[in-house]
Amino acid sequence: xxxxxxxxxxxxxxxxxxxxxxxxxxxxxxxxxxxxxxxxxxxxxxxxxxxxxxxxxxxxxxxxxxxxxxxxxxxxxxxxxxxxxxxxxxxxxxxxxxxxxxxxxxxxxxxxxxxxxxxxxxxxxxxxxxxxxxxxxxxxxxxxxxxxxxxxxxxxxxxxxxxxxxxxxxxxxxxxxxxxxxxxxxxxxxxxxxxxxxxxxxxxxxxxxxxxxxxxxxxxxxxxxxxxxxxxxxxxxxxxxxxxxxxx
Length: 248
Ligand code: NAP
Prior knowledge:
- This protein is of the alpha/beta class.
- The chain has helices at about 15-30, 40-50, 70-80, 105-135, 145-150, 155-175, 200-205, 215-230; strands at about 10, 30-35, 60, 85-90, 135-140, 180-185, 240.
- The chain has one domain: NAD(P)-binding Rossmann-like Domain (Rossmann fold, 3-Layer(aba) Sandwich), CATH 3.40.50.720.
- The protein is globular and about 45 Å long.
- The two termini are about 30 Å apart.
- The site of NADP nicotinamide-adenine-dinucleotide phosphate has 28 residues, from helix 1 and strand 2.
């Protein structure tokens, strides 16, 4: 079934990992997709080419989500290219892990800028178009770490907890205009990046998860389809945990 027929979605950080999985599934569900990346032009163009034989339109844009002006420019380009924006998925994110004792000011600021300020930048840029059409679904990517905290990730946890507070506030502000804003909090999702980790460590992580496996990008993408589509038209301000039961 196609739950996103004719919708236009912006997905930040679509060149790799979870974002790439969301782009692919959204196209399968009939959405037209504008996705961004920071520097992996090759991967982005390959994905764009792979999907361009599909009927919905797919286009990649190099755009730094942490830059306020760049977010405004991106949104204008997407409106020019696609005509409207129905869905925004703020997925782009980075880590710069270290114990607080060793964490530099630069690494704290960078993670907040890319993971949290980007959500402000993109939501602000897109909201005026959603307000006009009185329709929109915004999905922000947090993390189990934003809910629970994690040693060595104070910057990342702060950014991801900030995403939840921001999203609840946006849900309250924009609900009367039929614009919904929800959060997805993934647990341990296995991507190209995690495939480079020591297998023994990964096996330990898996066995600590109630469902006894790491998640896949498709697990997160399925939750995105639900929250982006009219299947969830009476749901806003919520955090959906896609973590195999890690927080249970
Ligand atoms: P990933 O594989 O490292 O991919 C990150 C994506 O974000 C890439 O497309 C990257 O573009 C893009 N990006 C990075 N900085 C950007 C910037 N300043 N502007 C625009 N795009 C930028 O990450 P992932 O594991 O798929 O994670 C995706 C999201 O889920 C993140 O928000 C992450 O915090 C969250 N999350 C992940 C997990 C997990 O286990 N993987 C768990 C919980 C939450 P380039 O390719 O050009 O660098």
